[in-house]
Write a structure and sequence with these properties.
This protein is α/β, with parallel strands linked by helices. About 35% of the residues lie in helices and about 25% in strands. The chain has 2 domains: about 55 residues, Arc Repressor Mutant, subunit A (Orthogonal Bundle), CATH 1.10.10.10; about 180 residues, Rossmann fold (3-Layer(aba) Sandwich). The strands form 4 sheets. The chain has a 7-stranded parallel sheet, sandwiched between helices. The protein has a 3-stranded antiparallel sheet with strand order 1-3-2. Strands 10-11-13 form a 3-stranded antiparallel sheet, with helices on one face. Strand 2 and strand 3 form a beta hairpin. Helix 2 packs across helix 3 and helix 8 runs parallel beside helix 9. The chain is globular. It starts with a helix and ends with a strand. About 35% of the residues are buried.
């Protein structure tokens, strides 16, 4: 239901350019508190910008949902999660690293790894890792999305199929026990899914606000992943349910 409301809200924003709390109440048949929570959640996903009593759509005249903007959101949590993820990377590993902003911070913690092969389509990661003498960097080519700073399209999808890794570190806009992994950009989901399918071990690396939230398009089943690495803001109720299904690693836990 929440995902359907988000779609309806975004559709109305696209038509009008702005929306009021009352509009969401009338459109979706929910309370004002629920409408506010929806706007808060959507702003964190950089799908809109909240205003007094409502929201405006994200566009060139406000804030673009580009890599730099997303990188600044929850940056401290993302870096801690990335450090935790990097602890699972060992010498001689062949790994895939996805293009998410949380995964970007992994580059800070790879300097002491020997004979590491890293496969990625993330332009910021390529830049950061290109000068690391101990890392062999393999670039997935394709059409560059300038906002998301990554390569996509048929060439990228063909390239990623040619590589097999022993560990894949992937991102997702949402994950739920019922619906698996989901994304707001299908082109991202296609690359992520193929990289995960070609890996022996898959780590989903994400902030806790993505957990038990569904984005627009489901792109992979829950059992595609072996581990989830997230922050300590995850609720006890959700973490308990996830630990029954998967290896859940919380950054900062001993």
């Amino acid at each position: 239901m929440k995902r359907l409301r988000e779609l309806e809200i975004l559709d109305l924003l696209k038509k009008r350019g702005s929306i009021k709390i009352k509009d969401i109440v009338d459109l979706c048949g929910v309370s004002e508190n629920t409408a506010r929570r929806d706007l808060h959640s959507m702003e964190k996903q950089i799908l809109l910008v909240r205003t007094h009593g409502g929201a405006i759509r994200v566009n060139q005249n406000s804030v673009l949902p580009d890599f730099e903007t997303r990188l600044q959101n929850l940056s401290d949590e993302k870096e801690r999660i990335a450090k935790c993820a990097a602890s699972f990377i060992k010498d001689n590993d062949v790994i895939y690293i996805d293009c998410g902003t949380t995964l970007f911070f992994i580059h800070k913690f790879l300097k002491d790894k020997d004979n590491l092969i890293v496969i990625t389509h993330s332009l910021p990661l390529i830049y950061q890792l290109s000068n690391q003498p101990r890392i062999k960097l393999v670039i997935i080519g394709g059409e560059v999305d300038k906002e998301r700073k990554a390569a996509y399209g048929p060439i990228a999808e063909k390239n990623i199929n040619e590589f097999h890794t022993n560990k894949a570190f992937i991102g997702s806009d949402g994950i739920s026990l019922a619906n698996g992994l989901s994304t707001y950009e299908m082109k991202e989901g296609l690359i992520t899914k193929r990289a995960a399918e070609n890996s022996k071990e898959v780590f989903l690396v994400c902030t806790s606000d993505k957990i038990e939230n569904d984005a627009f398009v489901n792109f992979a089943p829950f059992d595609l992943i072996d581990h989830i690495i997230t922050d300590n803001k995850i609720t006890h109720n959700i973490s308990s349910k996830y630990k029954e299904r998967i290896d859940l690693v919380i950054s900062g836990d001993d």
